[in-house]
């Protein structure tokens, strides 16, 4: 028969380890630098029909940087029928790959949730006279 006190302690230790933030193999300073550089790279990509970069438009939903320096960008488009739907993810990947330290980049399109103007930054709204 097992000791319930030990089981509780083991369960508590497991729960604590599960909830603990995972340590990255990358130094925090390196993560911060790469994050800033990836954002700048994303800001270099524009929807050809809108004079605002895709980051300020709110088309970037998520960016994951792995310990192996692989980057996955979850993004959307202003409309599912966007004429550059095939090219824009490639533009994003090419821009992110230029960031020092990035090993690979992949852009994944999603339409959940659908994009709307509320996702735009104030800077983008100002540029498009939407105030």
Describe the structure.
Strand 1 (60-65) and strand 2 form a beta hairpin. The chain has helices at residues 4-19, 28-42, 54-57, 88-97, 122-127, and strands spanning 60-65, 70-75, 104-109. By secondary structure, it is α+β, with helices and mostly antiparallel strands. The chain starts with a helix and ends with a helix. Mean pLDDT is 86; it is low at 1-9 and 11-20. The chain is built from 5 helices and 3 strands, in the order αααββαβα. It has a 3-stranded mixed sheet. It has a single domain (25-127), classed as 2-Layer Sandwich (GMP Synthetase, Chain A, domain 3), CATH 3.30.300.130. Pfam families: FeS_assembly_P. Residues 36-107 form the MIP18 family-like domain. This is SUF system Fe-S cluster assembly protein.
Task: Show the helix and strand layout.
Layout: H1 4-19, H2 28-42, H3 54-57, E1 60-65, E2 70-75, H4 88-97, E3 104-109, H5 122-127
Parallel strand pairs: 2-3
Antiparallel strand pairs: 1-2
